[in-house]
Amino acid sequence: MGFVNKNLQALLEESIAVGAADAIDIHIEVHDGITILNYMNAVPAFAEILLERLYGNIFSSLAHYRIYNGTMGIHTYIACKDEQVLAVLLYRTAGTHVRILNEATQFAAIEIDRFAQHVFRTYPSVNVISLHAVSLEGKTHGFPLQRFNCLEDIVLGLPSSAEEYMAGLGKSTRNYLNRYQNKLKRAFPALCYETYTRHEIQESHIHEILELNRSRMEGKGKLTPWTAIDRQRMLELARICGMVNLITIDGRICAGTINYRVNDNYFLEVIAHAPEYNDYRLGTICCFITICKCIALGGKEYHFLWGQSDYKYRLGGVQHDLEHVSIFRSRRQMLRNANLVLSNLFHCYDRKMRLWVKEMRRRDNAIMKPVESVIHSLDAIKMAWQRHKQHWLGTSSECSDSPKTKLPT
């Protein structure tokens, strides 16, 4: 992993000069031909483009950090060799703990090892490094750790044309899409597909899609996770790097998706449709149209993100598992952080249990239905408690350093 930037040396030299002028603390190390730059309490301007090119992920983008968490107190770690950037990691420190902020991203395990070595050298008081919802390529060495599956990202590689994409789907899926698209056109001649990007996106677009989602979730006895603050942040991010696709019938929004683009990759934030159009499979049709639009705009990947919904696999998505990782300075420190170790174990087995229940439900195991109802009730209580705390604190939970992807479920 890594990319070559012919102007990297000039960028680094300029950044160091600017850092010196602005009194920014920059630590520089060179080990085995690898140059490491650590910007303390600062994010250099050029880090934004490096993050986009290296990871191409909304959860490793400065736009997302600025809106959901702010950049105050963030440190920037950059590892490079000659003109090749190997890693760009944003992180925060809190006492004995360091948390890497990049999420839903694939890293070479050797780069995480190198970062851990640097952190434990630089911060003698730090004993734990955590990463959430990441994929490590290869094995880590040198430090004891815990790692467990916490989420999945369903990813679709995009071909060069919508025709090629359609041809690559299974025969039953092609027939399914053609049948319901034709059914929609016959029943609703005034049906329209609309696409809006960045500053074209209106607050009403976001509001209508989220209201459709809320209505559908309430019909299933579930709560939607978005607060008023979350809705505003979603609009802000969409106007920076978003794409909204709508299906309207007689001028009314009946289905829509909210997506973000980073580099050539698209990320599905929300999909929703009016329940009265269930017989037309409007949600799946809307997602299919969205994917075709991403292809037309030169997209390379479409990330359905988490949630093992059948439509994601039907439309060609492939599951990529994501892990939560805790790295400890030593086995002694692992024992001294027994509460964290036990918490990780709890989340690990909670995740396994939930996946097992879902699998049993897919097999129409009737015994699992009441178990799943209990889980949904517990989740609803947890969400209500979180909203209660937000109300009394007068802020959103996203202001904390809690993961911006979902907590392990």
UniProtKB/TrEMBL annotation:
One of its GO terms (molecular function) is acyltransferase activity. It comes from the Bacteria. Residues 171-312 form the BioF2-like acetyltransferase domain. Pfam families: Acetyltransf_6. Its EC number is 2.3.1.-. Keywords: Acyltransferase, Transferase. The keyword Transferase applies. Gene3D superfamilies: 3.40.630.30. It is an enzyme of class 2 (transferase). The keyword Membrane does not apply. This is GNAT family N-acetyltransferase. It comes from Keguizhuia sedimenti.
